[in-house]
Structures are given as C-alpha cells and as structure tokens.
Amino acid sequence: MKKGSTKRALVTSIVSTCASVTMLAGATFAWFTDTASTGVNKIQAGTLDVALVDANGNSVEGRDLNWKTADNREQSAILWEPGATYDLETVKVVNEGNLALKYKVLITGINGDAELNEAIEWEINGADIDEEYKLAKGEERDITISGTMKTSAGNEYQGKSIDGIGITVVATQDTVEKDSVDNNYDANAGFGDYIVAENNANAAALVNASEEKEVAISIAKNTSVSLETTGINTKKEVTFIGDDAETSKVVLKQNGYIGTSDSKLVFKNVTVECGTNDYKGIAHTESIVLEDCIIDGTFWGYAKNITFKNCTFNVSGDKYNIWTYTSNVNFENCKFNSDGKSVLIYNEGGSNPVVNLKGCEFTATKDVDKAAIEISGQFSTPTVTIENCKETGFSTKGLWFVKDNTKAPVVTVDGTQVN
User: Fold this and answer.
1) Do residues 203 and 239 make contact, with C-beta atoms less than 8 angstroms apart?
2) Which of 34, 235, 334, 390 is most deeply packed, by most CB within 10 A?
C-alpha cells in the first residue's frame, strides 16, 4: 500500500514539474537593467581661405597692380628692355581661414604675345616664384613680385606686348593641425592641376581629363571659355578664376546641360553667360559656388547645393534672373537687375528646398505684378529665410510673395515667420 502511494506521489510530482516548466517558458521576468549615455561634441569643418590685400587691408582681387619705377613714370610709359627689372606694388597674402595653409604664387592670365613671358624672370621677395610658402591661421605676409627681362632677350622680342597678366595664389592644407594620431593626414595635399585658358580647346581638354583631380582654370581679361559643346563630364572639382569679372567669361551650354552628378564647380571673378533658353545650363552636379561673379541671362539652378556670394545678376525681357530648382541654395550680398522678374523658388521634383537670402538687393526697371522673390508651393514645401534684403521697383507685390500656397511654404523675414 505504501509502495503504491509513493509511486503515485512521484508521478504527480513529475507532472507538476513539467507543467511548471511549460508555464515558465512563456512567462516574462523583470530583470534588473541600467543604461548610460553621453553626448558627442559638435562636428565643425575648418575653412581654408587665402586672400590678397593691399597695405590698408583692402582686397586687390579683380584689380590691376601697378609697376614701380625709380623715376615714378606713368604706367603707360614703362617699357621693358633686356636687363631691366620692375617691381609690382607690394601686397599681402592673408590666411583668413581657421586652418594653416601652404601656398604658391602663379603668373596667370597671359594674353597677347605670350612668348614675351619667356623672356621674363619672375621672383617673389628675391626668391624663385616657384617656391612654396606657409601661413598659420590669421598670419599674413608681404610679397613683392618683380620681373626682369633676361639679358639674353634678342630682337625677336622687340615691340611685343602682354595684356592681362594675372597674379594668382593657390593654397592647400598644411601639416600643422593634428587629428587623433598626428598631423600627417594632409601631408600629400596638393594644389591640383592649374592651367591658363589660352583657348577653348585648351580648357576643354583639361576639364574632361580622365584623372579625378581638382582643376583650376585661369581666364584672362577679354578671354572667353565656352562650355557649349564640351560640358563638365568628369568626377572632380573644377574652378574657373577670372582676371577681370567683366571681361573674363564662361559661356554655358545654350541648348542642353553640362555636368555630372559627382562634379563640383566653382566660379570666381568671371562673367557667367547663361543665355535665355528655358531649362538649360548646369545640371546634375553635386555643388556650384559662384563668388564675385556677374551672371547674365537666366540661371537654372539644378545642382544639389548652390552658393552665390557677392554676385550681380542681369536679365532683360520676360525672364527671371534665376529659377532655384534645387535642394539648397544660399544668396549672400547679391544684386539682382531685371525687368520685373527676379527670383523664382520652384521645385517640381517633390523635394523640399531650403533657400536663404541675406543682404540682397533687387531692382526692377518695370512693375509686372511680380514680387522680387516669388515662392511656389505647388509641388513642394520650400523653407525660405530672407534677411536684410530690399527691393526697388516691385511696387505691386514688393519683396516676397507666395504664388502657390498648396504645400504651405515656410517663409521667415528678418527673424519673423510670415507664412
């Protein structure tokens, strides 16, 4: 009898244990837990910014430097002959960025009898012009550039002349700032390829070279580089630098587009001729920067990111100065001249562009019932910030106007949201 009872008790215990395990398999336990977290400090990219200024700190970019003579002759009376040496007025190279840099000074923009330059020996402060120099953050250096006509220059140089000589400073990173290891990460920073645009074929060949290097093209006074047929079919950064903003010109493609999705374009101190054809120009590029430029015609802004700084826009007739047509665009201290249609912020691709306008002036020769800044919310929701801008001649609608509020653009003027 006891043996049977013991057996039944053992079976009951096993069944109970199995049932308990089964229930525990689906149960949730409240374990002790804890977490710890920390913030990450701001990531801030440095700036590499070199400038040329005179003794008073005023920029000399875009103007002509004068030759100095012992007898104070007029510039037009200075004639070169074998053995003669002339100095240019002294200027300063200034590191206006927050990164240390190294730089070279180049003689660019030679226009006219280019072979005459072969008879000139150039120096900077008495040293070979090909020397490489360094500037720490905030540092500046006086430089005096001199030219000496070689005593070996023969009769073949008589009567020849050069117009449009330019002085260009090219800068890159220097091995000063250290990352978490050392300062050698920028030891191989180069100045990129640099060329003087002697003609269109010369410039086009460099622009479309297969190497994915940075390229700088110097455009002399009264010289034009046409991108009508060549385009920018390369994955690299290409910079166009003019000796004179009014006469150093880049002519954009008038019947199609230029650019690839990976290219980055920079225009400095040039006139960019856009034409007036609709939906043409620079497309499919990563970024475009225009500084100290004159922009004639209608600019179609298709790049992902575009910056205009100290630019003057000119257009006539029933055309806008610019259709922004892009993800992000910034205008700083720009002037817009038109017959009443200036900026159209527009995007039909569905993305929501961010457009900032700071310190800009808009002048209309007539009132055509448009605002200086027309904002379309038909297909996207633009975010538009307008700061310290003014208009003249847009008397009906004034500085800004939302022409289609379907997607409710966000508009802020001088710190106050107005739409």
Assistant:
1) no
2) 334
